[in-house]
Amino acid sequence: MKNALSLFFLFLFVFQIQAQTFKTVGYVAMWNVDTCTIQWDKLTHINLAFANPDAAGQLHIDGEDPTDLVAAAHAHGVEVFISLAGGYLQPDWEAAWNYWMLPEHRGAYISNIMQFVQENDLDGVDIDLEWQYVNDLYSPFVLALKDSLQWAGWPMSAALPGSYRYPQISAEALAAFDWVNLMIYDLTGPWAPNTPGQHSPYAWTEQCLQYWNAQGLPGSRQTLGVPFYGYDFATDPVTGLDYSEIVALNADNAQLDQVGQLYYNGIPTIVAKTQLALQRTSGVMIWELGGDVCAPNQAYSLLSAIHQTIQTVSVEMPSRPLLLAIFPNPVVDMVQISSSQVRFERYQLIDMQGIVRKEGLLAADGNIPVQGLSSGLYLLKLYAGDAVWTGRFVKI
Q: Which CATH number fits the domain that encloses residue 134?
């Protein structure tokens, strides 16, 4: 988090506007689906993972029937995309993809995809071909599929690596996606047992967003991917654990990112990344919902932490706009307030349960010690006479 702690974040406090269009996209791994982890009121989209073609070009979700999930999602106003391919393809799936993306077969395959979306009452398509499965057929296939989907009014997204653009993805193909789910995780893992460490660090997240901006993908078409799992490098081979399994070991783990050689994202880091997403992207993407704790354990749920961060708190706003800086953010020991327009007199620090955790007169230097606060997201209220200004920061 070193880079994040030195970064000067400027807040204009327009979270109400952001929340109207901000997406929370959760992948549902059909082999790991647990409906108790799908908190529908905290999602805008789910991506069903994964559908692949058979030898006849017909899509199948590995034998699963999505009917009940789609109906439940729509009952809560959540859109459902079918995610095609996945990070690993069985040999017969890979062969089918390479056959049906060929120019002479592409049209028939796209017709099958369109029929699958219609028959299953879906709302869009997500392309998740990865790494060795991305070849010269990728971009022509994406552009042809986009033409059909656009005609039918169905959006198309993609899952792409956090900091790597496949050279086979043309500028036209990248522009065809309504948004891109950036997989900002798996910086290390079981494939690199001699490189233990955090597989989804905050500082790398910032670098990934900058990388894709430079590739011509604006923040308005990015969603920031976060992991609901971690890797334990103390085992041989390296073991993957769902976040729910990590919390089951010790509930205090929810507030951490590392236990021994087990690395993951706990609540404070997920909150910090959601804050970053609110500032710089169009949403948060989750891999995957089945890794969260079940809905009754709201205090430990990563999805609940994301949702609470997105939600705005109704506060009295001044009649004129104010440029106000809160830094560093996230913060460890001391948060500093800076504004050339207003001299603030006092402050309150309020947690996401609405409890005032600290208040007092604001020092002339604008510094507020926060060493004693628990990790998490805080609302900062600043008072000048009868006017109230608000901001947010993350304590780590």
A: 3.20.20.80
Residue 9, classed as helix, strand or coil, is coil
How would you label 85-96 residue by residue, b for 16+ Cβ within 10 Å and e otherwise?
bbeebeeebbeb
* β-bridge mates for residue 285, sequence order: 25, 225
Q: Which residues pair with 149 in a beta bridge?
A: none
The whole-number pLDDT of residue 352 equals 61
The verdict on residue 280 lying in a domain is yes
Q: What pLDDT score does 323 carry?
A: 59
Does the pLDDT value for residue 357 go beyond 50? yes
Shared domain check, 273 and 153:
yes
Specify whether 235 is located in the same domain as 377: no
Q: Give the C-alpha separation, 284 to 277, whole Å.
A: 6
Instruction: Give the span between the Cα atoms of 359 and 326, in whole angstroms.
Output: 16
Element (H, E) at 82: strand 79-86
pLDDT digits (tens, 9 = 90+) for 261-300: 999 999 999 999 998 999 899 999 999 999 999 977 889 9
In a domain, 315, yes or no: no
| Res 259 pLDDT > 90 | yes
Residue 6 lies in a domain: no
In a domain, 268, yes or no: yes
> Can you give the pLDDT at residue 41?
95
Domain extent at residue 341: 324-395
Domain end, chosen from 261, 286, 310, is at 310
Do 63 and 97 touch, CB atoms closer than 8 A? no
Whether 297 and 158 map to the same domain: the answer is: yes
* Residue 196 CB partners (closer than 8 Å, separation 6+): 188, 233, 261, 263
DSSP state of 342: -
Same domain, 289 and 377: no
Task: Provide long-range contacts, Cβ within 8 A and 24+ apart, for 73-77.
Answer: 73/40, 73/43, 73/46, 74/121, 75/40, 76/40, 76/41, 76/43
Q: How far apart are CA 90 and CA 87, in angstroms?
A: 10
State whether 276 and 329 are in the same domain. no
